[in-house]
Design a protein that fits this description.
The chain contains 28 helices and three strands.
Length: 778
């Protein structure tokens, strides 16, 4: 590596910055241009650093101490970009070639990065303008690193470190240096979401304060002023957010060379310089002092604080030891948290179990008491029924004996009456009637006893049924055993209580005697006083013994209660398992029944489908037959209309020719009657009888000729008064209603025959109306 190449690289980094950045002049980072006014010291420094850069490998190996001293004095601004890359070995990293590809990708942290960019160096010329070159390259570097290290992603404090790098070099080189810092300078552990490394640094720094500044440490403890309240930003940003930028840049030079050690040294030096002021302040005052006073103390330059920092004793071995202690403490805390969590879970489960067992115990006790009460009631009812049954049996036996006696008496009387049948009766009628009355009473008593016996038997059956509904003997025996155990433990508790009461009475007696002895102690000799003290000690020992025995009794009583509960719960669990098996069997039975019912339902659905198909076929057949009937009726109606037309035409022709056509009309009437009879038969077969399919036949003849009116030669028609009246009303138009001898049937069917003959014109028109249709012939 040659000096010319490094200088060329540095010139490229300078050209990549904004012109305003070159003219900022606010710090050593924004340095003035290299002009001919450089002093000889600066020229010597440039020559020296140029030689170091040119011979970097050799200087790094052989003159490491001299290199550290030079870095502590400060790296020249124009060499800073090159030296920082050389110090962290960030030159020629393979990840530099991936930078352009990373910028094309999308990061999940882009919104957070965009939000925090405006807060990074808000007063610096290179970053203060929105969407400026500085903000854009800062966004690119942060986005690229969030894609490279997805575990860390983006953390707000890291933007200040990247911003400082971008003030010195182009974004690709700044990205490589930042990656190296995160990997080799413990920054990655600091910026992880857990921030475990930050906790370790706080612990180590607090131990250093306790060792070097014990008074200040005690003041911090008294004010509850934790180390993380003021020192966390020191470690996360390497003083970039706490000190002026020139001072922070000088400290960052040493950080690039020596690592986090400089942060511990500078932090402790700052506290040493401000110890007197901090001890006099409270928490709020100390916070204000760290935020406003300390930064202005360093405006004169970083040399003073750096010199004080290297006077602080820093022991690397002790720091390793503190790291091990912190790791051990954190491990124990994690284990304790896990154990506490486990114990809390167990405690919660035990409480739930205790609540459940208490509820079950109360339920079991209620059931036991209820069962005992029911048993007592049933036993009492059973005893009463048995006593009544015994009374009824005794009465029945007495009545039976009386009946047998009566029968025996009757037989004796009958035997006595047989030899004296022909003689005078031995007994009078009154004695016979008396005997009959006694017999009737005996039979009534027997019937009553039989009824009472039947009632007693019914009661016994009812009681037996109710006994079957009660718990079986095994469950009752178990409950009785549990009750006996409870009573035994209760008796033991009562016995212990009596013993304790006796002991209390004995102690009271001893105490009274002790009081009586100690009443005149001040008059007794020293020996007696010593004896009294021994007696007092003996009394106190006995009291403690009584207390211990009372506690022992209480513990035993509690243990007996727990054993009782355990036994009760075991019995209850056993019964619950039996009930569960019974329910499982019932579920299986119901499942089988459900399957059978499902099969039956499928069969019913199939039969219903078959019935529906058959009904549809029958309906179609009925509709086909109905259509055939309708067609036949239409044909018959057509024939009737044709015959009517023939009849009317023949009738009119007979009137015109003055001939008698009665025979012809009668033939037509016969044919019409036959056709009507067939129509009635068809109507009887149809279901739709409400609609009339035939309304009648209407024939109207129109004549156009002279004014002479014509009348038929038919006598019946001439004698019809209706025809004459119609002629008078119509005024020259003839409307003929022939009387064919069967007028009733025609009127019932609603048929009518009309004939109209106009007086003018020689043209004739015949119109026939039937069933809503119209036929016309000319």
């Amino acid at each position: 590596m040659s000096l010319s190449w490094l200088l060329e690289t540095d010139s490229k980094s300078l050209r990549s910055m904004n012109g305003s950045r070159r003219n900022s002049g606010s710090s050593l980072v924004s340095s003035s241009s290299a002009s001919s006014n450089l002093s000889h010291l600066e020229e010597d420094s440039w020559i020296l650093w140029g030689r170091i850069v040119n011979e970097w490998e050799e200087v790094r190996k052989k003159k490491e101490k001299q290199l550290k001293d030079l870095v502590r004095k400060g790296i020249p601004h124009h060499f800073r970009a090159i030296v920082w890359q050389l110090l962290c070995n960030a030159q020629n990293m393979p990840i530099k070639d991936q930078y352009s590809e990373l910028l094309k990708m999308t990061s999940p942290c882009e919104k957070l990065i965009r939000r925090d960019i405006a807060r990074t160096y808000p007063e610096h010329e290179f970053f203060k303008e929105k969407d400026s070159l500085g903000q854009e390259v800062l966004f690119n570097v942060m986005k690229a690193y969030s894609l490279v290290d997805r575990e860390v992603g983006y953390c707000q404090g890291s933007a200040f470190i990247v911003g400082l790098l971008l003030m010195q070099m182009p974004e690709e080189e700044a990205f490589c240096v930042f990656v190296k810092l995160m990997q080799d300078y413990r920054l990655r552990e600091l910026f992880k979401p857990s921030m475990a490394e930050l906790g370790l640094c706080m612990y180590q720094f607090e131990c250093m304060i306790q060792e070097h500044l014990p008074e200040l440490h005690m003041h911090f403890q008294a004010q509850s002023f934790h180390t993380s309240m003021y020192a966390s930003s020191w470690f996360l940003t390497v003083f970039l957010t706490s000190f002026p930028l020139p001072v922070a840049t000088r400290i960052f030079d040493i950080f690039m060379c020596e690592g986090l050690e400089i942060v511990f040294r500078v932090g402790l030096a700052i506290l040493q310089m401000n110890q007197a002021e901090l001890i006099q302040l409270d928490m709020e005052g100390m916070l204000q002092h760290f935020q406003k006073v300390i930064p202005h103390q360093l405006d004169s330059g970083p040399d003073k604080v750096i010199q004080a920092a290297y006077q602080v004793k820093y022991n690397a071995k002790k720091m390793k030891k503190l790291e091990k202690e912190y790791t051990t403490i954190k491990t124990k805390e994690m284990e304790e948290q896990v154990e506490i969590k486990r114990l809390r879970t167990e405690n919660r489960l035990l409480k739930q179990r205790i609540d459940t067992l208490e509820k079950e115990s109360a339920s079991l006790a209620d059931r036991l008491i209820q069962g005992q009460v029911t048993r007592a009631q049933e036993a009492e009812e059973n005893y009463l029924v048995k006593r009544e049954l015994a009374t009824v049996k005794q009465q029945s036996e007495e009545v039976t004996a009386q009946l047998e006696q009566a029968k025996k008496t009757i037989r004796e009387l009958e035997q006595q009456q047989q030899p004296q049948a022909k003689g005078v009766p031995r007994f009078s009628e009154e004695s016979v009637l008396q005997l009959e009355r006694e017999l009737v009473q005996a039979r009534l008593k027997e019937a009553e006893s039989q009824c009472a016996l039947k009632e007693m038997q019914d009661k016994i059956l009812d009681i037996e049924k109710r006994n079957t509904s009660l718990p079986d003997d095994t469950n009752v025996a178990r409950l009785q055993e549990e009750l006996i155990g409870v009573k035994l433990r209760e008796a033991e508790a009562l016995t212990g209580l009596k013993e304790l009461r006796q002991q209390v009475r004995d102690l009271e007696e001893h105490w009274q005697r002790h009081l009586a002895r100690t009443a005149g102690r001040w008059k007794d000799s020293p020996k007696k006083n010593t004896l009294s003290e021994l007696q007092d000690e003996l009394m106190s020992v006995r009291l403690r013994e009584a207390e211990a025995q009372a506690e022992l009794r209480e513990t035993r009583q509690r243990m007996l209660e727990l054993e009782t509960q355990n036994q009760i719960h075991s019995n209850q669990l056993r019964r619950a398992e039996q009930e569960s098996r019974c329910l499982h069997e019932r579920v299986q039975t119901l499942t089988v029944q459900n399957k059978d019912l499902h099969v039956q339902l499928q069969e019913i659905k199939r039969r219903q489908a078959e019935i529906e198909c058959k009904s549809k076929e029958e309906v179609m057949a009925v509709r086909l037959r109905e259509a055939d009937n309708i067609a036949a009726m239409a044909e018959l109606q057509q024939q009737i209309s044709e015959l009517e037309i023939q009849k009317e035409e023949g009738k009119v022709q007979g009137q015109l020719n003055h001939t008698d056509s009665s025979q012809y009309i009668r033939d037509l009437k016969d044919q019409i009657a036959e056709l009507k009879h067939e129509i009635r038969c068809l109507k009887g077969q149809r279901s739709l009888a409400s609609q009339a399919t035939f309304d009648g036949v209407h024939i109207v003849n129109h004549y156009v000729g002279d004014d002479e009116s014509y009348q038929s030669s038919d006598d019946d028609a001439a004698k019809d008064p209706t025809l004459q009246a119609t002629q008078q009303r119509s005024g020259g138009r003839i409307k003929l209603h022939p009387n064919l001898g069967d007028t009733d049937s025609e009127e019932e069917d609603g048929e009518a025959l009309r004939l109209s003959v106009p007086q003018s014109s020689s043209h004739k028109t015949t119109t026939v109306l039937f069933g809503g249709s119209k036929q016309q012939s000319v």
